[in-house]
């Protein structure tokens, strides 16, 4: 549709070109020119429309189907990629969370066991229901050991004699001059007052000492006065130094 | 003069009216625009050559747009619409460059 002819070569003067342009610009409007103007208006209209379509979100609405398929394809692939990434991250999250839970549970359990073992090993003070046994007279270490064994059998969790904590390894000895030595500490010699404090079910502890032929009877035979007081709250405050684990 | 005015008026109408272009027409709009631009530059060149004719311009404009749209339409039916519209745009763009070069020579190089 290019409008050209051999005549174009003959009119190659720049002034001619400008003059023609000027002539057209200031020509009187005619019916034919009106038609041209209408076509130009349509063109301008279309350009503005297209630009507004491209700038709007409706690009997809004007795309042809194969382009849409391609776009959909790439979106699908992207979706899959993101899905697998999401799965991986969820996995990691679950792992981290369960790990955290396990660590927290382990820490809590450790604390509980720490407390239990601390009381058993005598490195922690303890308090709770229990009995206070006061023996007055010629107490021997074997009498104290009997009492302690009886209390242990009755379920005593923590026992203290005077200011000495009694644990599994505590030795009861009689010194060269009949001293009473408990756990390496001399707590008395001959007649004197000894105080046993034991934590556990107070009624059970008390009756375990009072059974016929038990500690109380044999103590009386030996001339020792025994006073048992059941209390809802006693304190075992003596502690042993904690040993480092081997 | 009146043609330039028409261009401006059309653009203004498009800006202010914002009508909905029918969906079936939308794929052909960009191609039609490029074809129209080609006709416009061809007309400008003919004008400077002194051989401009209103009738030729109108026919050239309309047929340019129609043929371009037709090619793309056929391409869409054959499943090669994207490639054919690219081809149409390339050809029309080459023509526009050639016309603009001719116009430039007329106006500035004598």
Automatic annotation (TrEMBL), chain B:
InterPro entries for the chain: DUF1290 (IPR009709)
Protein name (database record): Unannotated protein
Pfam families in the cross-refs: DUF1290 (PF06947)
Organism expressing this protein natively: freshwater metagenome
Keyword Transmembrane: yes
Transmembrane segments: 27-44, 56-74, 80-98
Keywords linked to the UniProt accession: Membrane, Transmembrane, Transmembrane helix
């Amino acid at each position: 549709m290019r409008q050209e002819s051999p005549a174009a070569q003959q009119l190659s003067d720049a002034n001619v070109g400008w003059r023609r342009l000027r002539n057209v610009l200031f020509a009187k409007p005619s019916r034919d020119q009106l038609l041209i103007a209408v076509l130009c208006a349509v063109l301008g209209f279309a350009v503005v429309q297209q630009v507004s379509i491209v700038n709007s979100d409706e690009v997809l609405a004007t795309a042809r189907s194969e382009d849409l398929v391609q776009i959909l394809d790439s979106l699908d692939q992207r979706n899959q990629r993101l899905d697998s990434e999401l799965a991986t991250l969820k996995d990691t999250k679950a792992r981290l969370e369960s790990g955290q839970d396990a660590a927290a549970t382990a820490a809590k359990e450790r604390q509980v066991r720490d407390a239990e073992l601390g009381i058993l090993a005598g490195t922690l003070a303890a308090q709770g229901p229990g009995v206070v046994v006061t023996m007055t007279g010629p107490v021997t270490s074997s009498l104290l050991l009997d009492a302690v064994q009886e209390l242990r059998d009755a379920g005593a969790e923590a026992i203290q004699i005077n200011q000495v904590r009694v644990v599994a390894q505590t030795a009861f000895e009689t010194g060269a001059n009949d001293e009473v030595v408990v756990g390496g500490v001399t707590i008395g010699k001959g007649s004197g007052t000894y105080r046993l404090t034991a934590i556990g079910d107070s009624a059970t502890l008390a009756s375990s000492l009072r059974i016929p032929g038990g500690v109380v009877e044999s103590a009386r035979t030996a001339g020792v006065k025994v006073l048992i007081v059941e209390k809802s709250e006693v304190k075992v405050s003596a502690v042993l130094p904690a040993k480092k684990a081997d | 003069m009146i043609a330039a005015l028409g261009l401006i008026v059309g653009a203004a109408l498009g800006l202010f009216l914002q009508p909905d272009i029918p969906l079936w027409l939308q794929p052909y709009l960009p191609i039609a625009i490029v074809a129209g631009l080609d006709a416009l530059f061809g007309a400008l060149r003919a004008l400077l050559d002194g051989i401009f004719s209103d009738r030729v311009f109108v026919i050239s404009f309309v047929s340019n747009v129609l043929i371009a749209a037709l090619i793309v339409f056929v391409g869409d039916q054959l499943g090669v619409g994207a490639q054919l519209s690219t081809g149409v745009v390339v050809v029309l763009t080459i023509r526009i460059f050639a016309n603009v070069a001719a116009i430039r020579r007329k106006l500035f190089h004598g």
